[in-house]
């Protein structure tokens, strides 16, 4: 039987703080749904961390030119998991990646073609990138809609609509 895993994508201060250029106005509403899911499933928490300048390739240079506030060391406090989910992260497997999509690091924990429940932020960037890559690799993915936060409600909806196009590999729950 295939193991079902909860993947909580990037529940970090940089995405939770509404004063951050990347802060989601929807983040606070995801906390309780994520906690409830984490209480019932083995959990992987991902963190987006910037690659050091010397390790960046291609378009990542332009990305950090556009977002210089985020060009900080990976251990900067802004990249910490939010305090409200620190206990969830402490009980989870935590993986870091300098990419939007987290499938490559998630599969090092789950193996190939797992059953995933995905929540996190931002629905329209890192969640979308993770979900589509996982489905393309053969994972069965359920997106926990109430556990996801978009950059805006409109972008959240657009990303959910895009992911819904990938049924039956991706379903919204």
Automatic annotation (TrEMBL):
Top-rank taxon of the source lineage equals Bacteria
Q: A Gene Ontology molecular-function term?
A: hydrolase activity
Which Pfam families did the record assign? Isochorismatase (PF00857)
Q: Which residues form the Isochorismatase-like domain?
A: 4-169
Instruction: Name the keywords, alphabetized.
Output: Hydrolase
Entries under InterPro entries matching the protein: Isochorismatase-like_dom, Isochorismatase-like_hydrls, Isochorismatase-like_sf
Q: Keyword Hydrolase, does the record have it?
A: yes
Q: What is this protein called?
A: Isochorismatase-like domain-containing protein
* Source organism (scientific name): Aeromicrobium erythreum
């Amino acid at each position: 039987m295939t193991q079902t895993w909860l993947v909580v994508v990037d529940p970090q201060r940089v995405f939770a703080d509404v004063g951050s250029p990347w802060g989601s106005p929807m983040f606070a509403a995801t906390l309780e749904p994520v906690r409830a899911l984490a209480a019932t499933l083995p959990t992987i928490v991902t963190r987006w961390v910037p690659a050091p300048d010397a390790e960046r390739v291609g378009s990542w240079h332009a990305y950090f030119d556009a977002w210089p506030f985020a060009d900080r060391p990976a251990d900067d406090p802004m990249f910490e998991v939010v305090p409200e989910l620190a206990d969830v992260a402490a009980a989870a497997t935590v993986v870091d990646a300098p990419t939007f999509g987290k499938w490559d690091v998630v599969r090092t924990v789950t193996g190939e073609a797992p059953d995933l429940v995905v929540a996190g932020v931002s629905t329209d960037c890192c969640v979308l990138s993770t979900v589509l890559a996982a489905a393309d690799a053969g994972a069965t993915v359920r997106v926990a809609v109430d556990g996801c936060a978009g950059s805006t409600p409109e972008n959240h909806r657009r990303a959910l609509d895009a992911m819904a196009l990938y049924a039956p590999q991706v379903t919204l729950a």
